Structures are given as structure tokens and as C-alpha cells.
Sequence to fold (824 residues):
Amino acid sequence: MADSSDNIILVTENICKSFGITKAVRNVSLSIQKGEIHGLIGENGSGKSTFSSMLCGIYPIDSGRFILDGTEYKARNQIEANRKGVSIIVQETGTVSGLTVAENIFLGNEDRFVKFGVKNTGLMNREAQNLLNDFGFDRILANVVIDHYNFEDRKLIEMVKSTYFKPKIVVVDETTTALSQEGRLELYELMDRIRADGRTVIFISHDLTEVIAHTDRISVLRDGELIDTVITKTVTEDDLRRLMVGRELGNRYYRTDYDGNQSDDVVLKIRNLGVPDHFSNINFDLHKGEILGFGGLSECGMHELGKALFAGSYHRTGTVTLASGKEINSIPDAIANSIAYASKDRDNESLVSNTSIRDNICLPSRQDLKKNGLLFKRNLDDFAWKNAERISVKMTGIDQSISELSGGNKQKVVLARWLGKGSNIMVLDSPTRGIDVKVKADIYNLMNELRNEGKSIIMISEEILELIGMCDRIIVMKNGSLNGEFFRNQDLNEEDLIAKMV
Amino acid sequence: MNLNVRFENLKRKIAVGPLYGVIILLLIAIFFWVFFKTLAPENFGSLSNLSNYFLSSIIYSVGGCGLYFIVVMGLFDFSIGANIILSSVVGVIVSTYFGYPGLLIGSIACGTMIGLLNGFLYIKLKIPSIIVTVGLMLIFESAAYFIAGGKKQTLAVGLRAFGKAPASIILAVSAFLLTIFILRNTKIGTYCYAIGSNEYVAKNMGINVDKYKLIGFILTHFFVGIMAVLTVSYGWSMTAITGMESMGRNFTPLMGTFLGLAFRKYGIPITAIMIGEFIISIIFNGFIAIGAPTTIQNVVTGAALLIIVTLTARPEEGAVVK
Fold:
């Protein structure tokens, strides 16, 4: 008994974290050993990144506690976490431009080079260069401003920054997706060195092959809960997928029809569509009266695709063509030709938050509401009421400010706006993200109604269940390309989709 | 290491190093010198002319160095001009009692206090620095007017050493060295850059962002205090003006700051500010030498500001610019 507890570096007890109504991490209790590489996997939104962010002091914990090496551990920021022996290599860039490589490596830790308020920059540069050389990155110069290095090199610098002080635990958070094969090998080697030292790596990745190849044990999260911790040698990728999914199908608020009658009329034709750094060479047709789903990991390119259909992307190539032959090349084009778009980022890209529900609903329709070239308040009021009530926005009145509404009601306002505009093609990006069950059901009902009216909907979602439940057809994207297509079918299950996503 | 590898390394060091930036700046300076010298060979660009251009440019460079601390953090200060006037007036008045120490300490202490006030209000009020400092500019202008009693404040004849070489150069060069020292050899420099680049990451690294913004404002106006000494010594007197007229004094230092930002990746922000202000001085004097009307100076200032900012600021595509 004493033996095994000696060997444990980190225990987490009932860790919880919520964002608004979303419970991101619920009661996660697990123990991690010294000298292991511990995999952490789960679908989008399963709580992996939230969990590791709490461990590294980026988010505060709501309840529960971490016990590091036998004593309770709390960190208010990354530097404090580092001092206590926990560090992280993040998904995005964790380096700061405008600083030199050396300044980046020692950011927040300059004090060891400071005497009487004076920083010994020469010594700092030399030490940084020594560290870089130790890691085998001699070609990176410590005294050069980091902007001169590309993303890949910056990741290598970040590895040095996060591990030179020999932390007890290093979290590698989906870093590999950003790296080339060569960079990945460097990272794997670094992870092995840390393990050989008797220290610990928590390795978060979507790439199951890589997780199986490089870990000792794996913990699986689902909907913020810890499902199981398994020994890597004893599992296959399929076992892991099953653990990641494992939910029961059949939710009553989804569509129940499976008759499969589908119009052949194409309303939108997408050819060779591409946006640099997001996706390329996308081809598909959208049919009349169809709900077409797009699924994939959050970085697979599908969110940008939604924006590109609405002509809201920069440097877009390829064509988006209506049945009439008209090409959509600007947002005004899209709106004038009955295309609607609800962004995943409701607060910043869809709604004007410091104004009223009325103004938000009327925004794209003001031209249509003119009488003899003038706008009358009564017309605007009627229009806003009619559309807000159609989708039962919960509000004190149309004069209420958007900023006072809950996430679900905000989304309803976005939908009411496009209902009012009478758009025939709706691109809805994550329409139920962060929304409670009741409002979700309302939105699903509305989608169904619109579909029956012959309107076409593109639903982009990270929730596999709602795609299966609502769509006539689902296209799965991976790394910026289409990677699979599924038709509506009672036997379709989550594993089929996940297999195409990761 | 064989010769070829050494050569490659050397090439890379030059491409990312200070030499490259300095060469570009000197080429620009030479270009404008040749340009105006060809148009007005008689009354432009002799060695003594050039040294005059340089002496007037270092005044602005000192202000540019100060502004650098907050502009690098993405903040702004419109009260620079008002502070120059206020600190000059205070310096001149104190100098009548205490001579040179009075001039130096009066101006610089007054300037620094203004920086403390600006920074404090910006942090406490939580509104954009532009608005805070525009409001304060009006107040400082009026304060200078009241303190001066509405009269022109003239520096005594025996106290004008900082208006000419070598004293002016010694003071200015000390200011440059101090700026370089703070940027390179204290945490302040690193943290100002980190806050400007990504405030979120900076916070996560345990940096007290508000504290370093306050320090930034104080440093900015400390250097503005030095600039006030140089300004009033160069012009011998200072008249308090109101109604936002002090704005005109903001821009020349600011242009140097923007050039500093542009050349920061070569590691020579302060050198770039100095050479940049010298270039601006060459251009102004060039236009005067070819007999262009004085209003053309304003056109040049305006155009130069727009061109420099456009070249330095590379906003992310789709970023909202306000």
C-alpha cells in the first residue's frame, strides 16, 4: 500500500468546473503516477482541455482539489503552477511575439537574472542558448526576436520553456496537430526523456494511434466525466472509441421520420471551395428540403466552411452557385439571394449586443420594411413581434436589450431574424451550443418545420448525436477535407462518424 | 564547423540582426538628403545644416523614446504636448529660484507626476487611454495657462545651455541610453512587450498588468519632462496655449515611436527612433529649403504619419479597426 502511494504524483478529488449552464468537468477523480505518460482523450467538449487548464492555473477550479506529491496544490496562474512543478505546452501559440527567444523562455521568471533591479541580459541569453543546445535545437538563436521563427520552431521553443526547469508534470495539450512529422518526433523524444527521468507527462490528443503508441495508461473523459482509466497495452483504438462515445441513442426531441424521401432539386452547388489554412477542394450539393449536417473535430475546417458559404471568408477560392446560376461572392449577395448564416460565435459575429431585440431582428430586413422609402417604427415593431413570437423568444418585450438574454434566447433572436428575412437556405453553425434542453427542443422543432416547408438547412455541429438525430445527410470533415458521407438511417451510430473524424 | 556553414550562420545573423535595420534607415536618410540637395543645392544639407537638423531632431527623439513604453503596450497618450507646455512652464518658474537644478528637477518632476496621474486614472476609470488623455490634455493646458498667469514664460539668458550642443546632446544621449537600458536590462521592458503582444498570456505568466501599465505611463512622461527641458531651452520661452492647440506637439515624437515599433524586430527600436526623427527633420527642412509654403509641412506631417502607421500596423485580416 505504502509502495503504491509513494509512486503517485497527482491525485485529483472531485474536480468540477462550469461555464454558465454548461458543466464542463464533473467530479473528476483520478490518480497519476510518477514516471508515466498518461493519455487523456475524449470527444470535443468532453472536458479535457478545461481539466488541464485548471491543473495549470489558467482557470480556477469550482470545487474539488488537486493533491500534488502528497500536499494540496493550487495555482492562480501558469508561473505559479510552474514553480510548484506543473507546466503545459498548449494547443495554440504559447509564445509572445516581440520578445526575444530568451525573454520568452524566461518570461515571468526573470528574477534569477535580476540584481538590484538590473537584468543581466547577456547571462540570460547565454543560459537560454545553453538550454536550446541541450535540447538539440542549436539552430535557434536565443538573442533573436521570436518573430523571425516559424510556428514549428516556436513550438520547439515552447517545449524548452515548459520543461527546462524539470517540472514534475508536463501537460501536452493537443500540440501534435500543429506539428509536422519531424516536430512530432522531437516532442515524442522529449516525452520519453521526461518519463525516463521519473517525471510525468499528461498527453492530450485526438490522434488515437499516437496515444496508443506513446502512453502507459489512458483516461477517457465524456461529457466532463471520467469514464475509465485503462492500461494502454490492453486496449485497441476501437475500445477507446467505444469508451469515448458509449451513450445511449434515441433522444425524443430529435426527428422521428426515417422515410427518406429526398428532393433531387439542387439549391446550392459548391465546387472546389477552399480557404487557406482551413480547408481546400470542397465539393457538394445542397438539396431542396434537406437538412445537411457537417461534423468533425472543432479544427477540421467545418466552421470556416459555414462562413465561406455565406461569403464571409477571406481569400476564398472556388464557387458557391445557386440553382439560378448566380454565384455568391459577397455577404450582401448571399443575403439578397436568400442565404442566412448563424455563426458559432453568437455574441461577436451574429448579434449587436448593446441594442434591442427589435433592432437585431430587423437588421437585414430594413430594406424590405421600407414604405415609400421611409421606415416606420410601427412596421418594425410588428415585424419584430411577429418573428420573435413565432419562435417564442422569452423576453420582457422587443425593446429589451440583447445583453440581458440567456444564450438560448439570443440564439432564438438570431433565428427569428432569418425567419423574418424568409431565407430559403440557412447555414446554422453550432445552433445549440451552450443551450439548455428546452430551447434545444424548440430549435430542433423549428428546423423540422422549415425543412417541411421546403427550405434547406446546413447544420454544422460538434455534437454527433444531434447530427444523427436531425440530418438527412451528414458529411464528416477531417483536416480540411471531406472524409465521409452518411445518409439518414436508424442504424447509424456515433462510432461510425467518429471513425471518420479522428 | 566548415566555412560554408559559418557563412550561412553569418548571413542569418545579419538578416535578423541590428545591422540590417540600421542600413535601411541610413539609406532612407541618404535618399532624402540627395533628393533635396539636388533640388536646393545652395541652402540645404551642408554639414552645418545637417548638424542643426540633428540638434532639433533629438528633442523629438527623447519624446519618442518615452512614448514608446506605452505605444508598445497598445496604449496611447494625447496629453504629451500639453505636458511639454506645463512642465516647461513649471521648469522655467522654478529655475528663477534654483537655477539649472530648478529647471531640470522642476520640469522632470512635473512631467513624471503627470504620468502618474494619467496612468492612475486610465487604470481606475477603465476607459480607453485615448479618451482619458484627451480629457486630461484640456485640463493640463488650462493648468499651464493659470500657472503662467497668461504670460509668456522666458528662460533666463544664463540658463539656456540645454538649447545647444554639447549640453543638449549629453542630456538627450543620456535619455536614449536610459531607455535602451530599461528595455534591455529590466523586467519593465520585457513586460511592456509581453503585454502589448498578448495581454492574456502576460496575465497567465503572473505579470501584474495594471502595475506595468502604470509604470509605462510614468516612464513616458518622465521622458516628456526631459523633452520639456530641451524644448524650452531650444526656444528660450514657452507660451501656454489652450483649446487643444498642444496637440500639434504630439505628432513628431509619435512618428519616431512608430518607426521604433517598425524596427523593433531588428532589435533597434531606439536607434530607429533617433534616425527616424533625423529623417523627418531632413524632410521638413528640405521642404523649407526648396521654398515650399509652410503649410506643406503639415501636409507632410499628416502624410508621413499615415504612411508610417500603415507600414507598421499589419492588422489581422478582418480585424475591427476603431
